[in-house]
Design brief:
alpha+beta, five-stranded mixed beta sheet, six-stranded antiparallel beta sheet, 2 domains
Length: about 230
């Protein structure tokens, strides 16, 4: 029987951030270097040469850690090596204790539909409606003018946008943003500004004349999601 499931992986954090990989083969190997037949190559010393694999089946996709040194996790929970684990649309796969994070999307899952949390926040809006910016925090999806953002935002970029979205219409100081997005790190104003610029490039009709993420001079930023 022909397999109609289609999947993609989007690198959200680490080497190759923003890259998209289509899972079109029966088995996709993930690891460091190409010598092991890896189709998704992660150039990081903490990633094993043969780190993990994703198998495409008639029922969906299965992830297996191939006995890697630093492990693999799904949605923050480390998986047992050499055992197949089912993947669901929106799952976050982390390699080597989070050195690399990849978001899994499946065409027959919820990839083309907003989740329940999104529907609640959006008041029933669907992907075909023009709705400015909508953020589904649970599924970690962003919708811009009725279209889901792909590839997904990088981890810190998403967290910044999610924080502004939670406080939409209100001014958020840079200190508040730093505490939320970088809770255990020292962060400069320039780092925050760079993060904002990256997000604007993805969600603004004209990032050089922003109307959705507004700069509050000398203070911080405000999100106007329906602008």
């Amino acid at each position: 029987m022909e397999n109609e499931h289609e999947g993609i992986l989007v690198v959200e954090e680490g080497e190759g951030q923003g890259s998209l990989f289509r899972l079109v083969q029966e088995t996709t190997l993930i690891g460091r270097g190409e010598s092991q037949g890896n189709k998704i190559v992660i150039d990081n010393a903490f990633v094993s040469r043969s780190h993990a694999q994703i198998v495409r089946t008639e029922r969906g996709f299965l992830l297996r850690d191939l006995g890697s040194k630093n492990g693999t996790s799904i949605n923050g929970r480390q998986i047992e090596p050499q055992v197949d684990h089912s993947l669901s649309d929106g799952d976050l796969i982390e390699l080597a204790r989070g050195v690399v994070a990849l978001r899994f999307h499946e065409s027959e899952g919820t990839a083309d539909l907003p989740g329940e949390e999104f529907k609640r926040l959006a008041g029933g809006a669907t992907s075909g409606e023009k709705a400015g910016i909508l953020v589904d925090v649970k599924a970690r999806d962003v919708w811009v003018d009725g279209e889901r953002l792909a590839p997904s935002l990088a981890l810190k970029d998403f967290e910044l946008l999610a924080f502004l979205y939670e406080n939409r219409g209100a001014a958020c100081s840079k200190d508040e943003i730093a505490s939320r997005v970088w809770p255990d790190e020292f962060v400069t104003d320039e780092q925050i500004e760079q993060c904002v610029r990256r997000v604007r490039k993805r969600v603004e009709p004209d990032p050089y004349r922003p109307r959705r993420i507004i700069t509050m001079r000398g203070y911080g930023y405000k999100l106007v999601p329906d602008a």
